[in-house]
Amino acid sequence: MIKQGENGKFLSDTAWNYGAFALMAGVGVILNFFIAAIMGVAALGVFNQLYAVFVIVGQLAAMGIHDSAQKYTAEYAEDEAAQTLVSASSVIGATVIGSTIGLGLYLCSDLIGRVMDSAEVGRGIALIAPGVGLFALNKTLMGLLNGARRMRAFAAVQSMRVMIILLFCLVVGLSDARPSTLGLAFSLAEALLAPVLLFLVRPPLHLVFGKDFVAIFRWLLRHGHFGGRALVNGFLAESYIRVDIIMLGLFLGDRQVGIYSFAALFVEGLFQVPVVIRTVANPVLVRLLIVDEPEKTAKFTRLAALGSFAVYVVAAFGVMIILPYLAPFFPDDLVMSAHELLWPLLCGLAVYAVFIPLDHILLQAGMPGRQSALMAFNVAINVCLNAILIPLYGLMGAAFATAISFVFSSIALNIAAALWLGLDRSLFFTHSIKK
């Protein structure tokens, strides 16, 4: 498995998921362009606030069980009996917890709309609430695919999700519906994906009613223990890239949030460039850290980091060159305003892009609590910088705050690896793993 991870399979899996990423990125661009041009900048602000809430609360609904499912599926790759128990128990846990959180979000939708000072956002949150519950289930099923390194199926499902969202939003935009109706796209996508994922994974839920009930219950506790400690990381990892939009929603209006979210669209897309490699690398890191192969670990981390940076630079350069030519298609200097915001954001992200493929290494080493502590530090820095700079400098303050936080995150990851994994010569050179 390790040999495959270093050679053919790792590169093949990465290629498949970059194909899915290219589709997702294209859909994201088309969708944001369409909403801004047809429904207006304020509608774009509503849509991106709904998206941020969906993803962030979706992490809370998943409760870290998807991380546990991915980690233990990879760890017990050669133990079919253990994998069966991991699968059944994680799906049950995700379904129960996700449904509860989804219901809670629906009941709080009006309150959240008042806090965000946007009735449209409140109405939209009520529509995304059912999708949040299903998202927890689907994310866990995808964690099982990821842990088993079934990355072609993983990429296909990712592609299906964004296509469903795109098609529904196009219908909403052309029908002159309220911006809040866009939130229904997320629930529809998760509802259609759930049966597909259940068919692909086929979790043996019948074990709950047989002699394996006790073993299932023990694995539920194990998922809860691991997932509970990983929850903060998952919750904050998705929040991290959207802290600026959430903070701007508190300080500024929907239109200004819409301008910034147009720039943030490209940042989030480029952020996914190294995340694709991280997704493929995670199950490989599990095995490498278990067997403690210093030279292979260092070689693999260098491969992942170098590939991430190279692809990021090419993609970021392309965005900055092409974006100004889109200005005539959008109103109110939207493109030029976004272009100015992108300079600090993409420079900061260039540093972090080297380390994103490895920024879940503590989780893969079986340290979810410490992984959560690291991410909590990163988000705290991001929140503090945004809280200081947005009132002073508005949209540009948010851009610089986020860029600086990317650099801090890169430094923090290396410090954490030295303290907790014994990687005192950084993540990229020969070392031994502390037991």
Number of distinct beta strands:
0
Mean pLDDT: 87
Extract low-pLDDT stretches: 1-5
Helix fraction, binned, reads over 70%
**What structural category arises from helix and sheet content?**
mainly alpha
Helix-strand string: HHHHHHHHHHHHHHH
- Structural shape: globular
Largest beta sheet, briefly? none
| Number of domain modules | 1
Number of helical stretches of at least 4 residues: 15
Give the strand content: under 5%
Rg, Cα atoms, Å = 21 Å
Q: Termini separation (Å)?
A: 22 Å
For this entry, give a set of tags:
single chain, 435 residues, mainly alpha, 0% strand, globular
Summarize the structure.
The protein is mainly α and 435 residues long. Helices cover 82% and strands 0% of the residues.
Describe the fold and architecture.
It is built from 15 helices and no strands. Mean pLDDT is 87; it is low at 1-5. The longest helix is centred in the last third of the chain and has 53 residues, at 368-420. α5 packs antiparallel against α6, α11 (254-291) runs parallel beside α13 and α12 packs antiparallel against α13. The protein has 435 residues and is mainly α.
Furnish the topology, listing elements before pairings.
Blueprint lengths: L1 H5 L1 H32 L1 H22 L2 H11 L4 H36 L3 H29 L3 H24 L9 H18 L11 H28 L2 H9 L2 H38 L2 H29 L11 H20 L7 H4 L3 H53 L15
